[in-house]
Specification:
Blueprint lengths: L1 H14 L19 E7 L10 H21 L5 E3 L2 H10 L1 H13 L2 E3 L14 H19 L5 E3 L10 H7 L4 E4 L14 E5 L5 E6 L12 H15 L5 E6 L10 H11 L6 E3 L2 H8 L8 E2 L15 H28 L5 H13 L3 H4 L7 H28 L12 E8 L5 E10 L8 E3 L5 E2 L2 E2 L10 E10 L3 E8 L14 E3 L2 E3 L3 E5 L6 E6 L4 E2 L7 E6 L15 E4 L1 E10 L3 E10 L2 E10 L5 E9 L4 E8 L6 E6 L2 E4 L7 E2 L3 E8 L2 E9 L4 E5 L2 E8 L23 E13 L7 H9 L3 E4 L10 E3 L2 E3 L3 E8 L5 E8 L5 E7 L4 E7 L4 E7 L8 E3 L5
Parallel strand pairs: 1-2, 1-8, 1-9, 2-3, 4-5, 5-7, 6-10
Antiparallel strand pairs: 6-7, 11-17, 11-38, 12-16, 13-14, 13-17, 15-16, 17-39, 18-19, 19-20, 20-21, 21-22, 23-24, 23-29, 25-26, 26-27, 27-28, 28-37, 29-36, 30-31, 30-33, 32-35, 33-34, 34-37, 35-36, 40-43, 41-42, 42-45, 43-44, 45-46
Helix pairs in contact: 3-4, 5-11, 10-11, 10-13, 11-13
């Protein structure tokens, strides 16, 4: 014990250098040369102003150079992140990989990050951030015999408030970042602080005070002086700091000139300067963690325009994430309960494709145009694999279901599967062969009762031997119901009375009346009949065009607020007249562009769905969708990865995920309006007006101070066709009362229709495999454990309230009761056997 105390005192003595005074007195100006850790580094962008194949070669060249420098200079150390890079080397150059392993074992090559890649952190879903660490840490544990301790993502453009909990769950002890810099977020108190998330989790945070790469040796002394000044000002009692040196972005790492310059400084102005690693620095200062300030907030913003740049990559990413999560849930069910082949390996490889393309310069839309061909292929691969795995899983489930019914001999059964953890009441769309080309079938549910349905257009134009329809159903959680279309012609289909109506410029049901302005095409009135409340103070759902003078990133821009026009000259077309759903199409124009919005209203809902098809041909302009509300003083909430955050309505451009909400109250009570979407990541809100950023059309990968003009011949982003969906959700109470976070999850991952045939089976026609009790709790992911020995379920608390919850799996005779803290993420490992018990809570690494 005495030896440990002495070691700690010696450690503190090396950090708390007097600066003219003792550590216990008010520190003064630095009068002692600081202890500097010189960290060799090469920030590697595998994709940016170049494509992936060039980035691939860049990794090998950089790692070779670093190994050579370490051989020439026995005291030089090096750090590198990203399991993807190491996997490339391990599979292509085993000899180099063996050299790296040797240097890692010596402690001179420091693996940092712990993630698959250095990703953007605002656009990917929370589960993607979990998987970055899962696949990264598993790789490092397997190949190097240890996990990474220090998270490292210096060049990402912002960091969500929920990240500390995610990092802790991956066994990371500290987190090093650079952006936002102190000028971009003045509220950061010092380059070393404790970062706290909404659940109370804390992680030791290191903000790089200079740059992740100092390349020019002649400037080293200047930069060291600036970093020292920052530490002297903000952390006067800490006389040690890191200095990252080496050539970066396109790789490179420490140069001979860099190393010789540091040796020169060691013999002159900085005698306390030593070569070392980031982990060396963390080990020196982390014992002081409790003395540092705490930041209980998100770490934003470096650049705001990147969350709407290259809308295609945002769409593909969201589609791939949803496809993999859905496929995992279904496949893990079929594997756990019906002994279908385990698809964990295929799913993992697909996830890695998605994770790679969440790299910050790909996901942010800041790479060159041709880079997105590779991204499209990678994400398409992941979606194709997910679809194939999901289909096999659904077949594995439905084979065990008794779909036969002798009362309906001339019928086609189909399964509707709900991958969500709550029962969902929604409209289902099904299309199948009609057979004789004329019979209108009768729809029956699992109990043999007739269900009213509405015939809608077939996918192919007017294909008479196909039938396509929508109907309302409530599908159990993590379960299914068998429906059937009866083509016997013995009776007419059941049709409900018309409860939704459409005119040339309105949609109406018993709950709301939505009126469109014939001059602008916008929604002139969104009237809540139940509460006798108008929701829009002025026309809404209006596509607004803004001046977009900045670069791809939106550097130095806080708000896009220079309105220069809006779409107009509307054309109205009635597409569906009910009785289950009415659809009104509004087409409008601006410049060389057009937009088509198909507004859908269901008979029993006050929510408005919209499918948008945009044909865009404008340069240096931004397009937003304006949704004004009667809540200029309301409370604004944004969804973020695995959580939410309140922000002011100041009109600034902000990152967000699948939903935002404004809630407040009037003389009739509390209410709110939420905006859901399936692929967008940028928003702005001011005075109760929500604006969804659809796109901004700068030149590809344009970075100030470089200038570019249309006459230069460079291609501009976003030209051509785009499609996305959004939804307006009025609700009573606040967003928690309206279950907006839960509904956004259902909006992203809808029930799946799977056609089958009449056959016997042991399972009933309606069933729930997993039950979940607990208000505001969801099972966000269900997968087979990476070791193949258990089922893994991940739960997230969505409403910021402590709640009791219970998971039940009747087929395995297992259940678990637990408490979810506000905003908590929990992971459970469930043995795949019918023996009772055995469920245990594990970390995000499934340990």
């Amino acid at each position: 014990m005495m030896k440990k105390i002495i070691l700690v005192l010696l450690l503190f003595a090396g950090i708390f250098v007097a600066r003219g005074q003792t550590a216990g007195t008010m520190p003064g100006k630095n009068t002692v040369s600081p202890s500097v850790i010189a960290i060799g580094h090469a920030h590697i962008d595998p994709v940016w102003r170049w494509n992936k194949d060039e980035g691939y070669a860049e990794v090998f060249a950089t790692f070779r150079s670093a190994l050579d420098r370490m051989k020439e200079y026995p005291d030089v150390a090096f750090i590198a992140s990203s399991a993807q890079f190491y996997e490339w080397v391990a599979t292509t150059d085993p000899k180099m990989f063996a050299e790296i392993k040797q240097r890692v074992a010596e402690g001179r090559w420091n693996i940092v990050g712990g993630w698959w890649i250095e990703p953007d952190l605002n656009c990917p879903l929370g589960e993607s951030l979990i998987r970055q660490g899962l696949y990264g840490q598993l790789f490092f544990q397997k190949h190097f015999g240890k996990k990474v301790k220090v998270g490292f993502n210096p060049d990402s453009f912002g960091h969500p408030w929920t990240l500390p909990q995610i990092l802790n769950s991956q066994e990371l002890e500290a987190y090093c970042f650079m952006r936002p810099k102190i000028t971009e977020k003045p509220g950061i108190p010092a380059p070393l602080f404790n970062w706290q998330g909404p659940d109370g989790s804390k992680i030791f945070a290191i903000q790089i005070a200079g740059s992740y790469n100092h390349e020019n040796s002649e400037d080293f002394e200047t930069y060291l002086g600036r970093i020292n000044d920052r530490y002297t000002k903000d952390l006067p009692a800490v006389n040690t700091f890191p200095f990252f040196y080496g050539v970066g972005n396109h790789g490179g790492g420490p140069t001979i000139a860099n190393i010789n310059k540091i040796k020169e400084l060691q013999g002159g102005k900085y005698p306390g300067m030593k070569f070392g690693t980031l982990e060396d620095f963390v080990n020196r200062v982390k014992p002081l963690q409790n003395s540092f300030s705490t930041v209980n907030d998100e770490l934003q913003h470096h650049a705001r325009g990147c969350y709407s740049a290259c809308s295609d990559i945002k769409l593909w990413n969201r589609q791939a994430e949803a496809a993999l999560l859905s496929a995992e849930k279904i496949s893990s069910l079929s594997t756990s309960l019906f002994n279908m082949p385990d698809q964990t390996g295929r799913l993992g490889e697909s996830w890695k494709r998605v994770l790679f393309n969440q790299f910050h310069d790909i996901m942010a839309g800041s790479a060159i145009e041709s880079a997105y061909t590779d991204a499209h292929n990678d994400l398409g691969y992941a979606m194709s694999e997910a679809k194939d795995i999901q289909t096999k899983g659904l077949q594995g489930i439905v084979m065990n279901v008794n779909t036969a019914d002798t009362a309906f001999k001339n019928s086609i059964p189909f399964m509707v599967f709900n991958p969500g953890s709550s029962a969902v009441k929604t409209y289902i769309h099904v299309e199948m062969e009609r057979g004789d080309g004329k019979t209108s079938p009768v729809l029956y549910n699992s109990e043999g009762k007739e269900v009213s349905w509405q015939e809608v257009r077939t996918a192919g134009a007017n294909v008479r031997w196909r039938v396509s329809g929508i109907f309302e159903a409530e599908i159990p959680a993590f379960g299914y119901e068998i429906f059937r279309m009866d083509f016997s012609g013995s009776k007419k289909p059941l049709r409900s009375e018309a409860k939704v109506m459409v005119t040339g410029n309105s949609l109406e049901n018993d709950l709301v009346k939505i009126t469109f302005d014939k001059q602008s095409g916008g929604i002139s009135s969104y009237f809540d009949k139940k509460n006798q409340r108008e929701l829009f103070p002025k026309p809404g759902a209006v596509p607004v065009v803004l001046n977009d003078p900045g670069d791809t990133w939106g550097h130095n821009i806080e708000a896009y607020n220079q309105v220069i026009g809006q779409f107009g000259k509307p054309e109205f077309v009635i597409l569906e007249t009910g009785p289950e759903r009415a659809v009104l199409q509004v087409k409008s124009y601006y410049g060389n562009s057009s937009i088509v919005q198909n507004f859908s209203l269901l008979k029993n809902s006050g929510e408005l769905d919209c499918l948008v098809t945009l044909d865009w041909h404008e340069l240096q302009k931004m397009l937003k969708l304006s949704i004004p509300t009667v809540l200029p003083q309301g409370k604004l909430t944004y969804s973020i990865p695995y959580g939410f955050i309140e922000r002011p309505m100041n009109g600034n451009e902000e990152p967000g995920q699948t939903w935002i909400d404004i809630s407040g109250k009037d003389s009739r009570g509390a209410f709110g309006i939420a905006l859901l979407n399936d692929s967008k990541c940028g928003y702005s809100v001011k005075d109760g007006e929500m604006q969804l950023t659809i796109l901004h059309s700068t030149a590809w990968s344009h970075h100030i101070p470089d200038s570019v003009h249309p006459g230069d011949g460079y291609r501009y982003m976003e030209q051509g066709m785009h499609e996305f969906n959004y939804k307006l959700v009025p609700h009573d109470g606040d967003w928690r009362d309206g279950n907006i976070a839960g509904e956004a999850g259902e909006y992203l991952m809808k029930p799946i229709v799977y056609l089958t045939n009449n056959h016997t089976g042991t399972l009933p026609k309606k069933n729930s495999f997993i039950t979940l009790e607990g208000d505001g709790v969801t099972i966000s992911a269900a997968k087979i454990a990476e070791d193949g020995k258990a089922w893994v379920l991940r739960c997230v608390e969505l409403k910021g309230r402590e709640t009791r919850a219970r998971i039940g799996i009747r087929s395995l005779n297992k259940s678990v009761d637990f408490t979810m803290k506000p905003c908590e993420i929990k992971t459970f490992r469930i043995p795949i056997s019918k023996a009772p018990g055995g469920i245990k809570e594990v970390n995000a690494l499934e340990e």
